[in-house]
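Sanity check

After download, print the first record. It should look like this:
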Amino acid sequence: MCSNELTIIGESCTYGGSGNWAVTGSDTCTLTTATDLHGKNLTFTGTGLITITAALYNWTSCRAENGATVRVQAGGKLSRYS
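Expected structure tokens:
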């Protein structure tokens, strides 16, 4: 089946697996995969909406800044520890 819709996932929407993670509001991310940050920092930054529908866990610091709006929906969770 073909569709006229195209979904582009912003570069900041996926954790690279090491180092701190900065999710950019203008990427309009929906974070749907459970992610272990291995004790690194998690920052939501810049104007825009970031939606969380999976667990983001094991981070040292988590903050929203510079106009970022974070929405945690059903199935989503921010947990400092695993």
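If your output differs, re-run the checksum step. Summary of this record's structure: The chain is about 0% helix and 40% strand.
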